[in-house]
Design brief:
The chain has eight helices and eleven strands.
Length: 291
């Protein structure tokens, strides 16, 4: 049997997170595919080390960059697009999947990585922006403002549009098998929020009341593209919030490792946390309650 698992935001700059990667079984996943939906590390050596470790445990590892991966602060890359191509070259040499591929068995599924970025509200209507009382419109605490550096977009309005355009010529899908797509960034506003859970909401206090995540959450261009492709299941990350939601015929899943302090806050023990099973060749897509 073949299986497909999802994880994102593994942030192996934290030793505890790298230890989690190391601790994954070297036997249980040998016939399986792991989708890593961005944010491994901004350091190329750590990035490569984490992927090499995962590659020893899974038959296939697929990856798209997140914003942390494209930070140029403290690296030799002159800008974030150069860093993007560097990481893609590393993946190509290692055999990490960054283009469409087929997981073939009794049932088969196509997996399509999609490069992406977020659209800020001032960049166009494809932003996921929702107004927040008391927000800082300058995103003063957002590290990307200093760690990300873009060259000229050569006719594109912003990086999100450029990456969407890049995806148009790098997929090779058929109508014969269902499709799983994945990005780092969010494709829809609804996914910013979990389903209503009064017990959680009651104890939650916003630690950063001036920070409005929706300004940098993702882009509606992502959802438009994944639906044009014919995706049945879309995996994403970025927000460090797990999601399982079905909207208008597409299932959206986020399974984030996130930061150690976030797992501690949520009462998650590292040795009880794993990549999420989303598909297997015996039963197809895994159905779970929405949250």
């Amino acid at each position: 049997m073949k299986r497909v698992f999802a994880i994102s935001d593994i942030h192996v700059d934290y030793k505890q997170n790298m230890d989690w990667v190391d601790s994954l079984s070297g036997l249980d996943f040998r016939n399986d595919t792991l989708v890593v939906a961005g944010d491994i590390s901004n350091k190329p050596l750590l990035f490569s080390k984490a992927l090499e470790c995962l590659q020893k445990k899974f038959e296939n590892v697929a990856f798209v960059p997140g914003n942390h991966d494209l930070w140029v602060r403290g690296t030799d890359s002159s800008d974030s697009m150069e860093k993007f191509y560097l990481l893609n070259n590393i993946c190509e040499v290692m055999g990490i999947k960054t283009r469409s591929f087929l997981v073939k068995d009794r049932r088969s599924v196509q997996i399509q990585p999609l490069f992406s970025w977020y659209t800020k509200p001032e960049q166009g209507e494809d932003s996921l922006y929702l107004a927040k009382p008391g927000e800082d419109p300058n995103l003063s605490m957002w590290a990307d403002n200093k760690a990300i550096k873009w060259p000229s977009m050569n006719g594109f309005r912003h990086p999100a549009e450029k990456f969407i355009n890049m995806n148009e010529w790098q997929h090779d899908l058929t109508d014969e098998f269902p499709v799983i797509t994945f990005t780092h960034f969010l494709p829809r506003q609804e996914l910013i929020f979990g389903l209503a859970n009064p017990s959680v909401k009651k104890k939650f206090t916003d630690p950063f009341p001036a920070f409005n995540f929706s300004r940098v959450a993702g882009s509606v261009l992502i959802d438009r593209q994944l639906r044009n492709i014919g995706s049945s299941l879309h995996i994403f990350g970025h927000q460090h919030r797990n999601r399982q939601r079905e909207i208008d015929g597409v299932t959206y899943i986020a399974q984030c490792l996130a930061y150690p302090k976030e797992r501690h806050w949520a009462g998650i023990k590292d040795d009880e946390y794993f990549p999420k099973l989303v598909w297997d060749s015996e039963n197809g897509f895994v159905k779970e309650p929405e949250y």
